[in-house]
Give the backbone structure.
Amino acid sequence: MTNKNTPSPILIAPSILSADFARLGEEVSAIDNAGCDWVHIDVMDGHFVPNLTFGPCVIEAIRPHSKKIFDVHLMIDPAAPYLEAYSAAGADIITVHAEADKHLDRSLQVIRNLGKKAGVSLNPATNESVIEHVLDKIDLVLVMTVNPGFGGQKFLESQLSKIANIRAMIGDRPIHLEVDGGVNSETAALVAKAGADALVAGSAVFGDGKYAVNIAAIRAGAENAIV
Ligand code: DX5
Ligand code: ZN
């Protein structure tokens, strides 16, 4: 299902931040079997965001549990010293925050030189102009629709115009527009209509344990909005 706003099919990337950390490997297998497209892994350092989560060793440990793309969201500052470690641990997409990197262009080149897909994430207050001069060095833009650090927060509708602006900036470049925070079957429709093609969802997937039903509902919410 695609349209002019979302040239590629809708991809669903459950965030394991909302998973049962005591059974992380099983949870990754479960969302894989439930039909997710990517596995979204929220790395937090307790400095860039007020929470602390996974080091490279955890990604290494869950890597054998799914062949799906590991979409690693680095909410860490600095990120540059750790790119190689997350790459070696099994990340397929490595996304750094524009706000946490004084040398964004160089970090993106490092990620691609490691053979990985390069992404840039923007916090809600960050203008889309920050990606203007790196559009040819990225494979993904991750728009935060919550202030990063925690799952289960309220979706920020203020970001919809930014999503639409970034979709226009992307043009016909092969860049995914991913949205992250407060995504459920209702907000999925809003972000898909605005131009998102990859949707991160944590609490909306893991909340009640019905992973396949929830992934399908989010996908349907987005696809029905762009027919
Ligand atoms: C927030 C993370 C998000 C979060 C999404 O800092 O980057 O990926 O886990 O969780 P929900 O979908 O519950 O907002
Ligand atoms: Zn995330």
About this structure: Helices lie at 24-33, 56-62, 83-89, 104-113, 160-170, 185-194, 203-206, 211-225. Residues 15, 17-18, 40, 42, 73, 75, 146, 148-149, 151-153, 180-183, 200-204 surround D-xylitol-5-phosphate (ligand 1) (CB under 6 Å). The CA atoms of residues 41 and 72 lie 5 Å apart. The domain at 11-225 is CATH 3.20.20.70 (TIM Barrel).
